[in-house]
Amino acid sequence: MIETIKEYASKRIDLLKIEATEKSSLSAGLITYFIVLLVAFAFFIILFNFGIAFLIGKALDNTSYGFLIVAGFYFLLMIFVVVFKNKIVNSVADQVIKFLNH
Length: 102
Prior knowledge:
Layout: H1 2-59, H2 63-83, H3 85-101
């Protein structure tokens, strides 16, 4: 009986190790995926914003105004993120917890 309990405990520990390894590898894969996606998206956003700034500047006959308008948009976006910081942080934390618990 004791031998069976020891064997069960050993198998249970092995199962927990396998599950932990699986979650760790999935997490590492997702992190890598999101980093690559973030870098690609950052390049897209930078180039897109230059294009929009030049387009607005050309429409206003002043390139500086185009860049100022794009910068103003990002300033408003920054204010929005600061105002809703707690909601954003809690939402991301909830998603991470859901991922790690499933």
